[in-house]
Amino acid sequence: MDRSSEWFVPRFGPDKFRKLMGLLFLPYTGMVLSFSVIGAMLAHPVHWDRVLATVIIFFLGLGIGAHALDAVGSKGTKPWGRVFSERGLWRAALSSIAAAYLIAIYYMIFFVPLLWIVALLEGFFVFAYNLEWFRGRFHTDGWFAFSWGGLPVLAGYILQTNSISAAALAVAAATGFFSLVEIKASRPYKALKSRRDPLTEEETSLMTRYEAILKSISVGVLFLGLGMLLWRVAG
Q1: CB-based contacts of 212: which residues, under 8 Å, 6+ apart?
Q2: CB 64 within 8 A of CB 84
Q3: Cβ(190)–Cβ(6) under 8 Å?
Q4: CB-CB contact of 84 with 19 (8 Å)
Q5: Greatest CA separation found in the chain?
Q6: Cβ proximity of 15 and 45 under 8 Å
Q7: Do the Cβ atoms of 179 and 149 come closer than 8 Å?
Q8: CA–CA dist 36, 27 (Å, integer)
Q9: What sign has the CA pseudo-torsion 210, 211, 215, 216?
Q10: What is the 3-state secondary structure (H, E, C) of the chain?
Q11: pTM of whole model > 0.85?
Q12: What angle do CA 117, 53, 68 make, to 5 degrees?
């Protein structure tokens, strides 16, 4: 199953560059980064160094680490072909996850010990979801929404406040549902896009609709995060 023709993969550049950009799943990674920023913007006051730290942590842990593990854990399929070796993917995953935790540990030791709860949960899901541990029990849409939709908001908020609030929980629930929509549209889109036999007109139309949903929700979340960021900067 080759995913290099999907909408988020650049149409320009060498094959390795295109697949590297595809491996990062930038629109979906951007959603998670936006969720973490949204969580941080709920706090008062905002510690801007911690906002930056949150974004870096999730880019390293999810954008690189989790997606590299996903490529390793793809059962019998290589979504990016043989461009990346399994050893290289493991090296990228473990080094980026380790770097993310080093940053997080600094803040957890000196400022926000409550973040340990989210850090341990995310550490579990980054391996259990992507490598399909426990017979894939945690590789489900619901756990995806929880780990990459809800938890980033809580991480962003806790890293600012070392506390939990009803507002943060409500927003985390909302972003969890955003992620649920994304994964529910992504799975059938991926299946249709990877079909080797020609699609019917109805299937092509359906694939186009799924793609529109994925583009709309990812861009919408990015603008929501940017809007909240600008609101707090201006305020």
Answers
A1: none
A2: no
A3: yes
A4: yes
A5: 58
A6: no
A7: yes
A8: 14
A9: negative
A10: CCCCCCCCCCCCCCHHHHHHHHHHCHHHHHHHHHHHHHHHHCCCCCCHHHHHHHHHHHHHHHHHHHHHHHHHHCCCCCCCCCCCCHHHHHHHHHHHHHHHHHHHHHHHHHCCCCHHHHHHHHHHHHHHCCCCHHHHCCCCHHHHHHHHHHHHHHHHHHHHHCCCCHHHHHHHHHHHHHHHHHHHHHHHHHHHHCCCCCCCHHHHHHHHHHHHHHHHHHHHHHHHHHHHHHHHHHC
A11: yes
A12: 75
Which amino acid, one-letter code, is at 105? Answer: I
| Structural contact between residues 104 and 50, judged by C-beta atoms closer than 8 angstroms | no
Name the nearest CA neighbour of 55 among 103, 23, 90, 119.
Answer: 103
Print pLDDT tens along the chain (235 aa): 678 888 999 999 999 999 999 999 999 999 999 999 999 999 999 999 999 999 999 999 999 999 999 999 766 566 787 889 999 999 999 999 999 999 999 999 999 999 999 999 999 999 999 999 999 999 999 999 999 999 999 999 999 999 999 999 999 999 999 999 999 999 999 999 988 899 999 999 999 999 999 999 999 999 999 999 999 999 7
